[in-house]
Amino acid sequence: MGGSVSCCSSGETPKISRREVELEECPITTAEDVSEDTGTYLQHISDRELPDELAQESNPSDHPRASTLFLNKSQTDVREKRKSNYMNHMSPGLLTKKYSSCSTIFLDDSTVSQPNLKSTIKCVALAIYYHIKNRDSNRSLDIFDEKKHPLSREKVPDDYSVVDPEHKLIYRFIRTLFSSAQLTAECAIVTLVYLERLLTYAEMDICPCNWKRIVLGAILLASKVWDDQAVWNVDYCQILKDITVEDMNEMERHFLELLQFNINVPASVYAKYYFDLRSLADDNNLSFPLEPLSNKRAQKLEAISRLCEDKYKDMSKNAMRRSVSADNLVGVKKSQAVLS
Fold first, then answer.
1. What is the pTM of this model?
2. What are the residue ranges of helices labelled H in the chain?
3. Do the Cβ atoms of 302 and 264 come closer than 8 Å?
4. How far apart are the first and last CA of the chain?
5. Which of 20, 43, 255, 321 has its CA 20 to 30 A from that of 169?
6. How high is the pLDDT of residue 190?
């Protein structure tokens, strides 16, 4: 059911496997290629697994050094905005943005471990907006097609697969799910990771006909993996009144199969997505809420700084002790060798 191509497909069935590297890049030595002097040649397993490693490094949801897809897709619009502002001699955001001074220091309450919920959801919605707007094609699967699997009883418009959704519409859809299910901001970042992993693994695009169900599937999976108190599928049926539990279960199963059951999100990948979302916010004048640094918060930051400083001092002392112990052990062995 979920393996066929929808009406907004480009004609090719998306592949479930990851992007493969051509076999010519990793040739296998045969018996004819081995001379009699070298004898039988057995290829090492690490050499045979090299193509998968190269494919993984190009996938931003798996490798921390690969650039995120949403940030690349947003650069075209960002450059056009900067060019337009330069031509019109405009500097948007400078009048509304708060800057620190000698008497007042402004800090936002968003950190990589505790992001601001509202700002993070706005950034994730903006990343999805750029994914849809600057998509390469309209490759999709029936399981995510809103026409074949509607989320409500309202009639789906005839132009549902043509008109791109606005940023506000995507934000309201995600905010409704997060507020009703009481999900965290970290879950929103993991949702974006799973979404881009799906697009890469399944070689498909997020477009007007499938964005709601893809986002719903990513949120459903992220809430179960990330949050300690997972939201059950039946709970989402209470939020989206007209969707059935069977439909939710089937969509979740297909989502996992397309991800090849890879739901691991390394800390380095999570941090990369967080900071790239911050960069996306800066490029689009979505400022995180700034507040003046109060005495209470300053004391808290100072206490955290002292705690980290003491921790690093203890670590350096332990390292010095181990180094001295190793030097003494080497000296003892040299003395025993001389005496013997």
1. 0.69
2. 45-48, 50-57, 69-87, 117-133, 167-181, 185-201, 211-226, 233-239, 245-258, 267-283, 295-339
3. no
4. 79
5. 255
6. 96
